[in-house]
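Example A, followed by Example B.
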Amino acid sequence: MIRIAFVLLLIWLVFFALRKLRKAPADVKARVLRYGLIAGGLAALIYMAKAGWLGGVFALLGLAAAFLLRLLPALLRNAPYLHQIWVAWQRAKQGQAGPRQEQHDRPASGKMTAAEAYEVLGLKMGASDKEIVEAHRRLMQKIHPDRGGSDYLAAKINLAKKTLLKK
């Protein structure tokens, strides 16, 4: 009987708190929601400890840890791409144009200067044709799309080779 009274009292308190919170500013609502979620989580944890259900919670935590450990190599392999996505999202959130957006705003002429081509291939100015071909082959073995690389980078490397060997 006391449990029913306690639950009804809790429902009554939540109802009046929400009515009062409806008129509050957004930052106050966010703070109250954050503290409410923390308090609710702690209350649920205490209840689960008292009821003896923490074994299930720890089993789920162990399952999540095993899943994350299995996922970790893929996350580390894709960390540069995830970082680029994160930076672009942060810039978009702040209303700034990122470097990729500015790059796509320029007209695509398909031309590359010799200096850019040397930079893409990682060579010094005046490299021989043999060095250009070797650098191209080395980079394409690493960045080829069939091996999980980027189409964009492969196209840049091919364009750099084409630009330098046309001279």
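Example B, a separate protein, is given below in the same form.
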Amino acid sequence: MSPFLDLWSWWPQTSLVIARAETADAEDLATIHADAFHRGWPADDFVAMLGESAVLAHVIRRRAGAPAAGFVLSRLAADEAEILTVAVDPRLRGRGLAGRLLDEHVKDLMRAGIRNLFLEVESENAPALKLYARRGFATIGRRKGYYKSASGAADAITMRRELPPL
């Protein structure tokens, strides 16, 4: 990670830039993902996904041209989409970045005609569960022992949000 990300502690939130992710962001995304999850995805996987027409991804940056500080990535199929991953640099969590990023991502999904949005989240990830509940996601299922966790295995909570047509 870039050392200037520590400067976010004083940077005004109104200056944030949210944009579509590009293949040039793959290294940043891989680093953030590895720092955020038990098993990170390599940059090559991000390059491949970002090159797919059925994938929509956004990044959040301190300013244009700065390294990504967080991202969200979804796969689209007909009028449905699944959020595959959301991650924010662990040093920058708790500042509302994931919420702002998710809000912009959902707007783009709606513009693309998505009506149903799904995701899975680790049952032990209380901040993510709170974020999704605040954004209108409802629990629709549970997969027992789906994720490897520090305590052995954790359930996956499946969530859904219906999006209004534009």
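On Example B: The first helix runs from residue 26 to 36.
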